[in-house]
Specification:
- The protein is of the alpha/beta class and 280 residues long.
- 34% of the residues lie in helices and 23% in strands.
- A 9-stranded mixed β-sheet has the order 1-15-14-13-2-5-6-7-8, with helices on both faces.
- A hairpin with a 4-residue loop joins strand 7 and strand 8.
- The longest helix is centred in the middle third of the chain and has 18 residues.
- The chain is globular and about 50 Å long.
- The two termini are 24 Å apart.
Length: 280
């Protein structure tokens, strides 16, 4: 069942949980530019006492540059004890230790030998893959990403070629090649936004003021069908859950009875801004 923002009652910051994908939620997918106003809204949640989790396929290096450094310009490190970061589709998680974010690989990390094979395949086909680059910042997941200036149409043509070669390299192995809007990811089948949700759920179990019951509100933000899986996971654990969808309106969901689906009229980071402008 779908609801527009005007029909939804927004949770207060205290004892509330907000979970954000980043690509397409604080960025414009066409050029990967970061929407600073969307970032400010997330920081305001933290400063207001909410628990905030990031659930992204991006590396921590990207998150630090595009999210945390902007947070620090807004007000320093004070709210970071309420912030938990899951990167690389659940392969790595980071928690604030009072001075910095401490990284640790999870059970969803891609084995090193699989990452090395991906690099061999990419290098062997590099002459035909001019729209994309190898993301060397990833530690537990392989991502080969579109250059910001490259056209999406040309990238998707080359993306199909690369995916075919990678699938051949991993035939018979328990490895998944995932084509997203702006990248090719190689990961364990257990990795994904649902994996990140599992790690976030475990983190919440140790947070004061948060009880994993239907009295705790969890609001998830995403722009794709895979992002919806994190909302489904929280709902399956008995948490009242809302999914704020800022992606293209032709995406069809296998809706979960216990997830309230909120579709913004604006797309991507503009949709995130719309949500918070209605909320405030």
């Amino acid at each position: 069942m779908s609801y527009w923002n005007s029909l939804y009652t927004y949770p207060m910051e205290q004892n509330a949980v907000f979970v954000f994908d980043l690509d397409g939620v604080i960025t414009n997918p066409a050029d990967s530019s970061v929407d600073i106003v969307a970032v400010q809204h997330i920081y305001t949640l933290l400063a207001g006492g909410a628990y905030v989790a990031i659930n992204t396929g991006r590396s921590y290096n990207w998150v630090k540059t595009n999210l945390l450094d902007n947070f620090r310009q807004l007000g320093g490190d004070a709210p970071f004890d309420h912030l938990y970061i899951v990167c690389e589709k659940g392969g790595e998680s980071l928690i604030w230790n009072g001075n910095d974010f401490y990284p640790q690989p999870s059970r969803f990390a891609l084995p090193t030998e699989a990452m090395e094979l991906c690099k061999q395949v990419f290098d062997a086909n590099a002459a035909q893959l001019g729209t994309m680059f190898w993301d060397a910042t990833k530690r537990t997941l392989v991502t080969i990403e579109k250059f910001p200036e490259a056209s999406l149409e040309q990238f998707h043509q080359q993306q199909a070629l690369l995916a075919e070669q990678l699938n051949k390299a991993f035939v018979g192995q328990n490895i998944r090649v995932d084509c997203t809007t702006i990248a090719v990811d190689v990961e364990l089948p257990a990795a994904g936004k649902h994996a990140g949700a599992e790690l976030i759920y475990d983190w919440l179990a140790h947070q004061p003021g948060i009880q994993k019951t239907k009295q705790t509100a969890c609001t998830c933000f995403g722009d794709s069908r895979s992002d919806y899986e994190m909302a489904r996971y929280f709902a399956s654990r008995g948490i009242t859950t809302v999914f704020v969808f800022v992606g293209k309106k032709d995406v069809v969901f296998d809706e979960h009875d216990d997830v309230t689906l909120v579709k913004t009229r604006a797309l991507y980071s503009a949709g995130t801004r719309e949500y918070f402008s209605q909320r405030n």
